Amino acid sequence: MEGLLTIPGIKVGGIHCGIKRKGKDLSLIYSERPSNWAGVFTRNKVTSPCITFNKRRKNNKISAIIINSGNANTGTGKRGMDDVKKIARITAKNLNVLYSSVLVAHTGKIGEFLPMEKIEPGIKRLVASLHYGTQDDCMEGIMTTDRTKKDVFLDLGFCKIAGIAKGAGMIYPNMATMLSFIVTDACFGNSELKEILKNCVDETFNRISIDGCTSTNDMVIIMANGTAGKVDRDKFSDGLLFICTELARKIVRNGEGATKIIRIVVEGARTKKDAKAIASSIANSLLVKTAMHGENPNFGRVLSACGTDLLAKIDPKKIKIWLQNHLVIYCGVKAEFDRERVKEALKEKEIEIRIELGLGSESMVFLTCDLSIEYVKINTKYS
Amino acid sequence: MEGLLTIPGIKVGGIHCGIKRKGKDLSLIYSERPSNWAGVFTRNKVTSPCITFNKRRKNNKISAIIINSGNANTGTGKRGMDDVKKIARITAKNLNVLYSSVLVAHTGKIGEFLPMEKIEPGIKRLVASLHYGTQDDCMEGIMTTDRTKKDVFLDLGFCKIAGIAKGAGMIYPNMATMLSFIVTDACFGNSELKEILKNCVDETFNRISIDGCTSTNDMVIIMANGTAGKVDRDKFSDGLLFICTELARKIVRNGEGATKIIRIVVEGARTKKDAKAIASSIANSLLVKTAMHGENPNFGRVLSACGTDLLAKIDPKKIKIWLQNHLVIYCGVKAEFDRERVKEALKEKEIEIRIELGLGSESMVFLTCDLSIEYVKINTKYS
Questions:
Q1: Pair (A128, A275) in one structural domain
Q2: A177 catalytic per annotation
Q3: Vertex B196, ends B191 and B201: CA angle to 5°?
Q4: Are A274 and A236 part of one and the same domain?
Q5: Which is deepest, A109, B138, B319, B325, by most CB within 10 Å?
């Protein structure tokens, strides 16, 4: 039995209903016992109606999450919201649960109406499939241009946590989106769960970048059905952090066209905010990403990216930079290093760029991936 | 006689001194009459010492600007600043002008020391070449991965303005940089010139993006030698705006790997700042840039990019979007349009994306280019 299904009372499924030309495109996560839950959602101000719909349920107990891939249902106005409600209503009816206990998620192309004539009968089949549905079915139903499935499972003894994720790639193949769904048998109230989840997301999913584009449909949802009873909050938080860290890593590793995962470590910042601003400025630099793709020790691009955020404090004369543990910039000036050895070290699949700012004690780890020709190819294509 | 040389008392030159393997790499713009001047410089906090050096001369009169390509002289610490001073001193000596009247600019790879043993004798030859130097020589000496030379000339009758520019491409081939040098025979004081230039730069060079990377060496310099005497400020400003607009356009058109120029028009914003934030968020979206490269009417990516700036105010329900004058989003919802006709329209070399926010009366035009496989190729390569 796999991850999500090891949580008592959880059933999952995934089917092809016809939103995508092929492959599964409709998934369900169902908890027999109504669960507490929390969600963290995209900060894009253009959102899919499912985001608003789910947020309104923040005080409810949740029985099911229904997710489709292939269509983001964004830029669809009132009809888009009506479709979300319809999906929730049909799901509730077929599962025999409360309408107010259903969450909805979409991922895919923006600006198209959902093909409800395919989704409606799909939901009926999907609910019927829960008897034999596997985590693989469920993961496949939320995938778009993902090349790999992404799941993590952790048994803490006193409780279990399991999660799946998709993205961040461009969807079908048109939009960057990440979705993650996590279930646990631990018992926490909605607001406590929200606090714990938010902290974990801030340190994981909020510290990754594939291409600097914020999706309209992002969400991370956790359901806690409480079958394991009350558990230690700190230990649970650590466990959830592990789950989120691993899922975030898997998303970056599977970034569109990505051949390398790049770990950016900023240390010695005055504030946490500065550390994050500088780390993300490096993570989003096309010049850094193409240099790492080419396995070039082009520290100048990293140094330059350190200075581009207008608010974050730096002193160029204090900056030290290491590429794969080779010091390349010492106090703002090129260090003596063996270029050939560094080039060799950059052939690894995992690259570390470490920056010491020398201004304080705050630090930040941020993950990104390299930028390849494949990325441009995937996103230039239109279907 | 070409642009810069039509300004009375201006001489220019460009030679190969050996910083780059081939092609001219050292240029000079010389004004026989010490000129008032103004400059606008990069906002990156990591800068080349030439930036600090030039800023210190803001109250001086200027006789010469010496520029090299192939090496940005950034990340070079004290030695870098010593080299700038040395270059200015040798130039001053050879031209027989004041040390304090020389400006220095570099463009090229970051983190390498300048090959002074090549530059020193080069300056001597360069000064000697002023007798026969052409604007082409001068433009070639500041080029890196630029595929075309970029110059504009305007005769206003009462005065002339001529300018050249380089970038924004990646330099040699490692760093994005733009440099622009403008000369005029109009007469303005340094501080008045600064005001005029700053306004023009804000509306032109500060509204273009190739890859969202801020260079460490950016500068726009104007020299006004005053031989035409006092002129009408408003008319001169209009002329300078034209010069800057054309140079900025040429830079975007020649962006690395660029096949299309994309004009982003944001209208109906609450504030100018909001308009710029939204325009630049669209201009820097890899998804928008790859979609335009693929000639795909992927309005969803544009809509999504409208919402990503955390501070700029939007109301998704009010947004209208046009691609090449075809309405594709009406009040946040996909409009009815003929996809084939829009695809056809996107085959043009110049694309216009127009966004109406419906919140106010501020607007902004921003230029960017598409993102191609060629861009990734150029910047993945290391030399």
A1: no
A2: yes
A3: 120
A4: no
A5: B138
Q: What is the largest CA-CA distance in chain B?
A: 69
- Show the domain range for B69: 4-253
Specify burial of residue A200 (Cβ count, 10 A radius: 0-12, 13-18, 19+): buried
Count Cβ atoms within 10 A of the Cβ of residue B280 and give its class: 0-12 exposed, 13-18 middle, 19 or more buried: buried
In terms of Cβ atoms closer than 10 Å to its own Cβ (0-12, 13-18, 19+), residue A22 is exposed
Of residues B43, B111, B334, nearest to A310 (C-beta)? B43
Point out the residue among A110, A301, A329 whose CB comes nearest to the CB of B175: A301
Size of interface A-B (CB pairs under 8 A): 220
- DSSP-H helix ranges across B33-99: 49-55, 77-95
Q: What are the tens digits of pLDDT across the range A60-112?
A: 999 999 999 999 898 888 999 999 999 999 999 999 999 999 999 998 888 88
Q: With a cut of 0.90, is the ipTM above it? A: no
Scanning A56-95 for CB atoms below 8 A from B yields 72, 74-77, 79-80
Contact A213 B175 (CB under 8 A): no
- Cα–Cα distance for residue pair A283/A303, rounded to 1 Å: 12
Dihedral sign for Cα A241, A4, A15, A50, please: negative
Dist. CA A162–CA A185, nearest whole Å: 10
Please give the distance of CA B297 from its chain centroid, rounded to a whole number.
Answer: 29
Residues of chain B under the 70 pLDDT cut: 1, 168-177, 212, 214, 382-383
Asked if residue A361 and residue A318 are part of one domain, the reply reads yes
pLDDT of residue A24: 96
Judge contact between B95 and B67, C-beta under 8 A.
no
Measured distance CA(B382)–CA(A291) in Å, rounded: 8
Residues B203 and B322 in one domain: no
Q: B329 to chain A: nearest residue by CA?
A: A75
- Give the angle subtended at the CA of A46 by the CAs of A45 and A47, to the nearest 5°: 105
Catalytic member of B177, B184, B245, B368: B177
Q: Find all residues with CB under 8 Å of B344, minimum gap 6, and list them.
A: none
Q: Is A259 on the interface with B (CB under 8 A)?
A: no
pLDDT at B158: 92
